[in-house]
Design brief:
Elements: E1 3-9, H1 13-23, E2 31-38, E3 41-48, H2 51-58, E4 67-73, E5 88-89, E6 95-100, H3 106-115, H4 127-136, H5 141-151, E7 156-162, E8 169-174, E9 179-182, E10 186-190, E11 202-205, E12 210-214, E13 219-223, E14 228-229, E15 234-235, H6 251-257, H7 259-267, E16 271-272, E17 277-278, H8 287-290, E18 295-300, H9 302-318, E19 322-327, H10 328-331, E20 342-348, H11 354-365, E21 369-374, H12 380-384, E22 387-390, H13 403-421, H14 427-448, H15 451-461, E23 466-471, H16 476-490, E24 493-498, E25 516-520, H17 526-537, E26 543-548, H18 552-557, E27 560-564, H19 572-590
Parallel strand pairs: 18-19, 18-20, 20-21, 21-22, 23-24, 23-25, 25-26, 26-27
Antiparallel strand pairs: 1-4, 1-10, 2-3, 2-4, 5-6, 6-7, 7-8, 8-12, 9-10, 9-11, 11-15, 12-13, 13-14, 16-17
Helix pairs in contact: 4-5, 7-13, 7-14, 9-13, 9-16, 14-19, 15-19, 16-19
Bound molecules: 2-deoxy-2-amino glucitol-6-phosphate.
The site of 2-deoxy-2-amino glucitol-6-phosphate has 15 residues, from α9.
């Protein structure tokens, strides 16, 4: 996804926005650019490739100015080239604009402007914004942007400066997140808070169809209809070190090792051990209605979808509620016919995933009530749901989601436990559940202690071009997640499959060159998984088993065994996913992949 960073204040702006841009690298991009304003002078530089290329271009140039906008581009219209990189300008180079999103009617606008003699310099949709703002500009940049908002369709998060309006940055959003940061020496705007967390943790979220005018001294927010908006300042919990590597070679590994703390953060202040009942303050606004709910639909994408798939089994184990899970991009096209009193649970780390946002908006139209399980406070999904539970996991910088998945499973379990204890779950079962949840951080640490062994397994099998991941019931979604992790950061082809489906086709694939990761903890599916392992071994397929510690039977059968401590059946996924994450990580390292920023991927997919 594109990244936007802006600053206007008392300090020199160039270094601040370049630093902020680096914090957004994890979002994925292919070019970058910056525009620094000093009075009526604006210096604009753009480069293809990494931010280091842009810095190389800047070189030793002294670029003065207290106001700047900077951008990382993830190409949607036009190749990743310098002329397509942002900022884009009008013909007279008075207006400089950076943009995240897609202008859906840009082609018609472009044709119309070309008829008026305007010559375009790029293939991008964004450039139409620069020309329209210039045409709309009389004496107020804010009004010119407001008028332009009414002329374009599609999604945008934009930042604009004008040669003749020094010391002012106008930002606006529709469908692409933008956050205002309130610093001691000036004001920021960015696509997400990690770009500014070194300078401030005081933020204000912009809503769709709103714009803000930022100056060194302050900011004002108004709607597309010019109605003034006042909005509470929020304090984010993230600290600067959260966006630092902290001695790890990659953010992904740091975040895998953060998981014990992540589970603690997900449960902090939310357990009533004596009563066997969690406390989830975020859903109390709808609790009287939610506790009567008997139908839930979970919608999410990618790893968050896999968390929802585990959640479905957990809800069925702990509650009397019927739970369905649907990929968000499919959900919105279904003929939605909810039973009354249906809740939709949207799971999203970023809270900005376009498919998930579109799904809950469609569900809202059909009368469903909405809950969110979201990590980013104040994100669009968190603000468009009726209630929800925050992960409190801090920023997840690695594109491949790891700690958030474990946090999502923890929160789904807490939610199911809370509902279950208001249905048929006994005090004893509730107390046992909370005790077992509280033991998980130490059990994850114990699993992490096998990292060297897991690295050795990865070293043996990373040259294999195809992998299979198998699991049953609670472990089937872990097979899907393990395959996704391996695919997305090592680029090795991998399939996650319900182990029971092996005999219906995939068993034809088994061969000595294709490792199968069999997720076989000592749970209710154990014997059937043992049979699957035997089927694979009898066809000379190598088996990497993820098993309960001390399982000699698996040790005799499998080629490799990675152990996890014992726990309750419905909590095993929080442990068995960790070896999958580390296998993927080490394979990617041996293949020298760009682990935190895998090719073609973005951390938050805010386009459909
Ligand atoms: C997972 O490793 C990927 N980064 C991706 O599948 C991600 O889970 C998906 O895009 C959903 O993102 P969200 O949780 O921010 O909605």
């Amino acid at each position: 996804m594109c990244g936007i960073v802006c600053y206007v204040g008392e300090k020199e702006a160039k270094a601040i926005v370049l630093e902020g841009l680096k914090r957004l690298e994890y979002r994925g991009y292919d070019s970058a650019g910056i525009a620094v304003q000093n009075g009526s002078e604006i210096v604009c530089l753009r480069a293809v490739g990494k931010i280091s290329e842009l810095e190389r271009k800047i070189g030793e140039r002294v670029i003065k100015g207290n106001s700047a906008i900077a951008h990382t581009r993830w190409a949607t219209h036009g190749e990743p080239t310098e002329r397509n990189a942002h900022p884009h300008t009008d013909e007279s180079e008075n207006v400089f604009v950076i943009h995240n999103g897609i202008i859906e009617n840009f082609f018609a606008i472009k044709k119309n402007l070309e008829k008026r003699g305007i010559v375009f310099k790029s293939e991008t949709d964004t450039e139409v914004l620069a020309h329209l703002i210039a045409l709309n500009f009389e004496d107020s940049l804010g009004e010119a942007v407001r008028k332009t908002m009414s002329q374009v369709e599609g999604t945008f998060g934009i930042a604009v400066i004008h040669r003749h309006v020094p010391g002012e940055i106008v930002v606006a959003r529709r469908g692409s997140p933008l956050i205002i940061g309130i610093g001691e020496d000036g004001h920021f705007a960015a696509s997400d808070v990690s770009a500014m967390v070194r300078y401030t943790n005081k933020v204000v979220h912009l809503n769709d169809n709103e714009l803000a005018v930022l100056t060194a001294k302050g900011f004002s927010i108004s709607t597309a209809q010019a109605k003034t908006v006042t909005r509470e300042t929020e304090t984010v919990e993230w600290q600067p070190e959260d966006v630092e590597l902290g001695g790890f070679p990659h953010f992904m590994l740091k975040e895998i090792y953060e998981q014990p703390e992540t589970i603690l953060n997900a449960m902090r202040g939310r357990l009533e051990p004596g009563e066997g009942v969690p406390k989830l303050g975020g859903i109390m606004p709808v609790w009287d209605h939610l506790k009567e709910c008997r139908h839930i639909e979970i919608v999410a994408c990618g790893t968050s979808y896999h968390a929802g798939c585990v959640g479905r089994y957990v809800f069925e184990r702990l509650t009397e509620i019927d739970v369905q899970v649907e990929i968000a991009s499919e959900f919105r096209y279904r003929k939605l016919n909810f039973p009354s009193n249906t809740y939709i649970i949207a799971i999203s780390q970023s809270g900005e995933t376009a498919d998930t946002l579109a799904a809950i908006r469609e569900a809202r139209r059909k009368g469903a009530r909405l809950l969110g399980i979201v990590n980013v406070v104040g994100s669009s999904i968190s603000r468009e749901t009726d209630a929800g539970v925050y992960n409190h996991a801090g920023p997840e910088i690695g594109v491949a989601s790891t700690k958030i998945f474990v946090s999502q499973l923890t929160i789904l379990t807490l939610l199911a436990l809370l509902l279950g204890r208001h249905q048929k779950l006994s005090l004893t079962e509730g107390v046992e559940a909370i005790k077992s949840l509280s033991e998980l951080p130490e059990k994850v640490k114990k699993t992490l202690s096998q990292d060297n062994h897991i690295q050795a397994v990865a070293e043996k099998y990373y040259p294999c071009s195809n992998w299979l991941f198998l699991g049953r019931k609670y472990q089937y979604p872990i097979a899907l997640e393990g395959a996704l992790k391996l695919k997305e950061i090592s680029y090795i082809h991998a399939e996650g499959y319900a182990a029971g489906e092996m005999k219906h086709g995939p068993i034809a694939l088994i061969n000595p060159e294709m490792p199968t990761v069999a997720i076989v903890p000592q749970d209710s599916m154990y014997e059937k998984m043992i049979s699957n392992i035997q089927e694979i071994k009898s066809r000379r397929g190598p088996v990497i088993a993820i098993a309960t510690e001390g399982d000699d039977r698996v040790r005799q059968l499998a080629d490799e065994v990675i152990e996890v401590p014992p726990t309750l059946e419905y909590l095993y996924p929080i442990l068995t996913v960790v070896p999958c994450q580390l296998l993927a990580y080490h394979c990617a390292r041996f293949l020298s992949r760009d682990i935190d920023k895998p090719r073609n991927l973005a951390k938050s997919v805010t386009v459909e």
